[in-house]
UniProtKB/TrEMBL annotation:
Keywords: Coiled coil. This is DYH5 protein. PANTHER family: CYTOPLASMIC DYNEIN 1 HEAVY CHAIN 1 (PTHR46532:SF13), MALE FERTILITY FACTOR KL5 (PTHR46532). The gene is Dnah5_1. InterPro entries: AAA_9 (IPR035706), DHC (IPR026983), Dynein_HC_stalk (IPR024743), P-loop_NTPase (IPR027417). It comes from the Eukaryota. Residues 58-106 form a coiled coil. Residues 2-174 form the Dynein heavy chain coiled coil stalk domain. GO terms for cellular component: axonemal dynein complex. Residues 203-263 form the Dynein heavy chain ATP-binding dynein motor region domain.
Length: 265
C-alpha cells in the first residue's frame, strides 16, 4: 500500500541528520523502532520499484520459456519419431544393399559357372569325335579280346627259348591257325604294348635292361610268366637288371660253387 507520494513526503525527514536509529534511541525506544521501520519501508519501496518490472519480465520470459519448452518437446517428439522412421528406413536400406550384394555375388558365381560350363561343353564337343572313335575301338577290343589273350598267353608260354626271328615266325603261325578257326583278334596287335606299359619299360631301362625289342620281350616273360625263367645270359645284362630290379626286395644271390651246394654234392 505504500505509494510514491508517501515516500516523497517522507524524504525530507529521512534526509535529516538526526533521523536515525541511534538518535531515536536516546529519545524513546518505541520511536527508534518506528524510525527504523519507516527507513526500511522507504528503502523497500525503492528496491521493489525496480524489482517489479523485473518480476513481470521474468514471468513473461518464463511463459515464453514454457511455450518454447513445449515447442521443443513437441519438436523432440517429432525428431524421435522421424529418427525411428529413419532407423527403420536405414535398416531396410542396409538389408536391400546386403541383398543386392548377395545377388551380385550369386550373379558373378553363376557367370563363372556359365563360363566354365561353356568351356566344358566346347571341350566336350571337341572330344565327342575322339570318344566315339574310342568307344568303337573299345568295342573292337572286346570282340578281339579272346584272340588277343590267346596270342599273349602263347607268347608267354612258348616264346622264351627262341630268338626274335623264331618268335615272329611262331606268332605268324598262331595267327594263321586262329584265322582258320575264325577266332577274332586285332590284326595290328602289339604284344609288347599289351603286356607292359611304357613307364614300366622306362623303369626297366633305368635298372639296366637294354631297350631293344628282344630284351623287352625277355623282361615281359621274366615278370609275367608263371614258370621260373632260365636266363642264358653270356653278357650278364639280365643278371645286372634282375639285381637292380629286386635290390629293394631283399634279393639274395648264390652260385653253384657256393659252400651250401658243395656240401650236398
Amino acid at each position: 500500500s505504500i505509494t510514491e507520494e508517501t515516500v516523497e513526503l517522507l524524504e525530507p525527514y529521512l534526509d535529516m541528520e538526526d533521523y536515525n536509529l541511534e538518535t531515536a534511541k536516546k529519545v524513546c525506544g518505541n520511536v527508534a523502532g518506528l524510525c527504523s521501520w519507516t527507513q526500511a519501508m522507504a528503502y523497500f519501496y525503492s528496491i521493489n520499484k525496480e524489482v517489479l518490472p523485473l518480476k513481470a519480465n521474468l514471468a513473461l520470459q518464463e511463459g515464453r520459456l514454457a511455450a518454447a519448452q513445449m515447442e521443443l518437446n513437441s519438436a523432440q517428439n517429432q525428431l524421435d519419431e522421424k529418427q525411428t522412421e529413419l532407423d527403420e528406413v536405414q535398416a531396410m536400406y542396409d538389408a536391400a544393399v546386403k541383398e543386392k550384394q548377395a545377388l551380385l555375388d550369386d550373379a558373378e558365381a553363376c557367370r563363372r559357372k556359365m563360363n566354365n560350363a561353356s568351356a566344358l561343353i566346347e571341350g566336350l564337343g571337341g572330344e565327342k569325335l575322339r570318344w566315339t572313335a574310342s568307344s568303337k575301338n573299345f568295342q573292337n577290343q572286346i570282340i578281339n579280346l579272346v584272340g588277343n589273350v590267346l596270342l599273349a598267353t602263347g607268347f608267354l608260354s612258348y616264346s622264351g627259348p627262341f630268338n626274335q626271328e623264331y618268335r615272329n615266325l611262331l606268332l605268324q603261325l598262331w595267327k594263321k591257325e586262329i584265322d582258320n578257326r575264325k577266332i577274332p583278334y586285332s590284326k595290328n596287335l602289339n604284344l609288347t604294348g599289351m603286356l607292359v606299359d611304357n613307364a614300366t619299360v622306362g623303369e626297366w631301362n633305368l635298372q639296366g635292361l637294354p631297350n631293344d625289342d628282344l630284351s623287352i620281350q625277355n623282361g615281359i616273360i621274366v615278370t609275367k610268366a608263371s614258370r621260373y625263367p632260365l636266363l642264358i645270359d653270356p653278357q650278364g645284362q639280365g643278371k645286372i637288371w634282375i639285381k637292380n630290379k629286386e635290390k629293394n626286395n631283399g634279393l639274395q644271390v648264390t652260385a653253384m660253387n657256393h659252400k651250401f651246394f658243395r656240401s650236398h654234392i
